[in-house]
Design brief:
Two copies of one chain form a homodimer. Chain A has 341 residues and is of the alpha/beta class. The first copy, chain A, is built from 13 helices and twelve strands. Chain A binds a DNA duplex (30 and 30 nucleotides) through helix 2 and helix 4.
Chain lengths: 341, 341
DNA sequence: ACTCAGAATGTAATCGATTACAGAAGTTCT
DNA sequence: AGAACTTCTGTAATCGATTACATTCTGAGT
């Protein structure tokens, strides 16, 4: 049962040619003659030969795989992004390795090891909150392997990145609420140190100012992108003397938690207050009420990131490699927003 | 900047010993003398040497990584399982490769290639719906590398597996509804060809029979584990002449979709009908109303699967390797169930 | 001082594919 | 026919770590 591993040698012997010829036939069929090509492919079929990637990787100095780093594997927000990444990578014969920041930390492994020890040819970072020393290391990547950030990015570092139109999306959200007639609009933010939080918060404040609306400090409610954060924010809203009539949450999860908590207090959306999210996760459409939100296409984010990274891996040092991409977002109007009472 | 890659040779030269000694020092410090150990570790530090895994893998005939196969990366149900798997693997110095059945199919890659071409040392399958020819191939795994199924399993194949107490969970669900006073209980199933669907459906029917309750055929409502499936099922329920007063859904997503659709028709849960799910996904607790469900601990499922696979990888042919594990589930009572009107 | 077991280290083969270089075979042109 | 290419194929070195086997060193025992 456990056959001896088949090697190029075996195929070469069966085909009656040298290993070099077999290798060439496999990697670039056009350089060998028609007859050889047939002999070799027959031999491959009859022996059931399959290439040994490890050997190939050693010789070519490529791992033929890419590391994706996320803050938290259990967060469904990333699933579609991974799907997009993996889809492009596998079309290129590359595999996807996954690690979460938390685990890397727990297991005492240094992130950069993946790049250093030839396990991966490049890296896509989905976590803008990497510790500064880690960022430092990546920036001086010893083998100068490409690193790219997606969704989030890292302030102060200059990795190429894929981002969404966060400013534009935020302003579209505020405008939507304004158009419905809202004049008292609050914002539930993500975690304080997050780049998306900062960008969206600033865009929110800018747009509110441009519309000449009031913005008391406590209408910026600190959150953390999670369901629980949304619940907390809802309680903060409930406790306000002068309650905003609309709330723009920095993530869908926040918005869902917010609505859920309100509902436990007998407050109904959008009757008593309009609520918006950001992301358009799968559940947004199915929630009660279906959530008005800003949609980012996570599949495309993933694909774009993978494409950009692959092009840097395959053409290292190409000066005209795209350095960053900004992807569009769109306003999706559902039932969680309505004119104020 | 792009330094020549450091090899064992370099370390050996600096430390003034042979490559064999360096290698031994790294893999098993106890076999070398105290003084050598220090010389080598100094040399490693001063050169900044990092092992080349590809070379090691080639020589040891191990990939030091495991492939995880899921039906659909975008399904949040799997995230926690992945977290559990990855957590254990990385503690063992192993990496996790991920592929989705869909992509493998799209890219024309054969699954077994991963095992065949030395990219992975073993495989965890989270998709019970693999095509029979694929299963056939895996079963006759050429290099006899271990394969294991988790959550779902494959009828007719005898891979070791990690499962949950599906029967017990289902019966607990039915009993909970019965205890609340329900006598007319329906079941929304998963996709027809799924092993979990079949198991839970059978357990449901058994328990109903044991309780001597009626079960008209249309009270088994076909679904597909998804939100949309739940919506469809809700419309089926609405269309019934004699409506069941409680519905046990085969997944949380089904239950959420079910409740959402009812709500769009002005029907409220649990006032007009009690609804239960299965899984206890993160959102179950935050939904309105919070969902009564059967909890499976997905982190532990993942960890268990990884442990079992690793033990088979590290001790191949160990006859006393655990062949399968059945993990407990628990009833989580929240607000989506109540006594009938 | 001498033997000998055991510990520590070194030498060199090995894993399996790729590829630089050289040589053979086949074409075209004068 | 011979020169000058082009196209194909083969030989052998190479990627970087591991490890079987050989060798040297150490110290205990007599």
């Amino acid at each position: 049962m456990a056959l001896k591993t088949l090697t190029l040698q075996d195929v070469a012997r069966v085909a009656g040619v040298s290993t070099a010829t077999v290798s060439r036939t496999l990697s670039d069929p056009n350089v060998v003659s028609e007859s050889t090509r047939r002999k070799v492919s027959d031999a491959v079929k009859s022996t059931g030969y399959r290439i040994n990637r490890t050997a190939r990787n050693l010789r070519t100095q490529r791992a033929h795989s890419v590391l994706v780093l996320l803050p938290d594997l259990a967060n469904p927000f990333f699933s579609n992004i991974l799907e997009g990444i993996s889809s492009h990578l596998s079309s290129q014969g590359y595999s996807m390795l996954i690690a979460s920041t938390k685990q890397v930390h727990d297991s005492g492994e240094r992130l950069i090891d993946y790049l250093d020890d030839a396990r991966a040819d490049g890296m896509i970072v989905l976590d803008g909150g990497l510790a500064p020393d880690v960022v430092e290391m990546l920036a001086n990547a010893p083998q100068s392997k490409p690193v790219l950030t997606a969704c989030e990015w890292i302030d102060g570092a200059s990795f190429p990145s894929v981002r969404c139109e966060n400013r534009h999306g935020t302003r579209a959200a505020v405008n939507h609420l304004y158009d419905l007639g809202h004049r008292k609009i609050a914002h539930v933010t993500g975690p304080a140190d997050n780049v998306l939080t900062q960008t969206r918060k600033a865009a929110f404040a800018d747009e509110i100012a441009e519309l000449r609306l009031d913005l008391p400090p406590d209408w910026i409610i600190p959150g953390d992108f999670s369901l629980i954060g949304g619940c907390d924010a809802a309680r903060a809203w409930i406790g306000m003397k002068d309650r905003p009539t609309a709330v723009f949450c920095a993530s869908d999860q926040l918005a869902l938690g917010f609505i859920a908590e309100l509902s436990r207090h007998g407050i109904s959306v959008p009757r008593h207050v309009s609520v918006m999210g950001f992301d358009d996760i799968d559940l947004a459409e199915q929630f009660i009420p279906p959530l008005t939100t800003i949609r980012q296409d996570r599949l495309i984010i993933g694909e774009t990131a993978a494409k950009m990274l692959m092009s840097r891996i395959l053409n290292p040092g190409d000066p005209q490699a795209e350095n960053s991409a900004v992807l569009p977002v769109s306003l999706v109007i559902r039932d969680s927003t309505a004119p104020p009472q």
